[in-house]
Amino acid sequence: MIPILIMNAILMSIAILLVVAEKFLVTYGECEIAINKDKILKVQGGDTLLNYFAQAKIFIPSACGGKATCGYCKVEVLSGGGHILPTEEVFISRQEALKGLRLACQVKVKNDIEVMVSPDLLEAQELKVTVTKIEDVTSDIKYIFLRLDEPASIKFKPGQYVQFKIPETDEFRAYSIASSPSRDSLIELVVRLVPTGLCSTYIHEALDVNDRIMLTGPFGDFYLREDSDRGIVCIGGGCGMAPIRSILFYLKEKGMPRKVMYFFGARSKKDLFFTEELRALEDEFKNFRYIPALSEPKPQDNWDGETGLVTQVVERMCPEGPNQEGYLCGPPPMIDASIKVLSGKGIKDIYIYYDKF
Length: 357
Ligand SMILES: Cc1cc2nc3c(=O)[nH]c(=O)nc-3n(C[C@H](O)[C@H](O)[C@H](O)COP(=O)(O)OP(=O)(O)OC[C@H]3O[C@@H](n4cnc5c(N)ncnc54)[C@H](O)[C@@H]3O)c2cc1C
Ligand code: FES
Known about the structure:
The protein is of the alpha/beta class and 357 residues long. The chain folds into three domains: 92 residues, Beta-grasp domain (Ubiquitin-like (UB roll)); 96 residues, Beta Barrel (Elongation Factor Tu (Ef-tu), domain 3); 126 residues, Rossmann fold. Helices cover 27% and strands 30% of the residues. It contains ten helices and 17 strands. The strands form three sheets. It has a six-stranded antiparallel β-sheet with strand order 9-8-11-6-7-10. The protein has a six-stranded parallel β-sheet with strand order 15-14-13-12-16-17, sandwiched between helices. A hairpin with a 3-residue loop joins strand 1 and strand 2. Helix 9 packs parallel to helix 10. The protein is globular and about 65 Å long. The two termini are 41 Å apart. The structure holds flavin-adenine dinucleotide and FE2/S2 (inorganic) cluster (FES). Flavin-adenine dinucleotide binds next to strand 9, strand 10 and helix 6.
């Protein structure tokens, strides 16, 4: 037992020494990063592709801040970049690996490298904003109002997200935009407190009105498909409310041209929010229905609405038929279960869009 412990300690020390030595002793000289066979970045090698992109103001989505836990920072590496790392294998399928896909946060630039970045991502920009209002909407969710300072307006698709830079750090976290794109000089977010979470704790405990913040974006392929006339089934939970609200308010401004059902899952009445405005939307448009479902209503809730898991309620109330599409946002188990229910209703997987968080 003791020799194994000693051996482990020796191996650990060697690993730490190698990391420290690489950081301080190894220099890789000047390297070129060729982007989309068009733009060349000249860098002193040794850092990650993600960091070099950020320095050049190319904002690749990086919801986990480069920890290889979100899988959002995929780029295609045509040459250079070395072998795929074990940290990337969870997110890069064999097929993607064959195409050269890598996580930009895991690719260390040690020599010249050629990469392809989706043109959509090249449109993401740095956004300077000022906090104008903060409201509590539940005991652990805050509703944040941000005014755009620079640029003065932003173009995004309803459902997309921005990344919030935690001040005094190089860390970013993703937050879906809760407001409609037509109000292009402001951005609204809803942020749930994750106990011990770096960014959500900062937002809940330190962020104040008049603070100036840096965002990047917009990002994401979870957005309203406007070229479709299918019925829409939205399923949300927690802060999954945010992108769905953006979609709904955008549809409202367009006159709610499609039939929409919105199922929202919560534990008890205290976890519901934005209820009044969603009920008002129901009153305004006969083709919109808001169906909150409580899984554990409390006696004092006097709840006479739907009960059970939101997926059970969708199973009961959502009509069968392929001429619908799904927009799902919330915790991963809820999304996985919702996809199964919607597939069972005859909706093809390609018409089920989701963001899990
Ligand atoms: C596309 C996208 C959109 C998002 N939109 C929103 C949004 O609109 N509102 C919102 O509140 N959040 C949203 N998130 C989640 C958000 O980006 C952060 O992950 C979350 O706020 C936690 O960050 P943190 O820095 O506070 O916690 P961290 O310091 O990153 O994590 C601390 C600990 O909490 C765990 N943890 C991280 N996230 C969660 C979580 N969501 N639930 C439970 N445990 C967690 C981690 O595993 C870690 O152990 C979104 C995420 C993505 C990918
Ligand atoms: S930034 Fe999250 S996996 Fe790379």
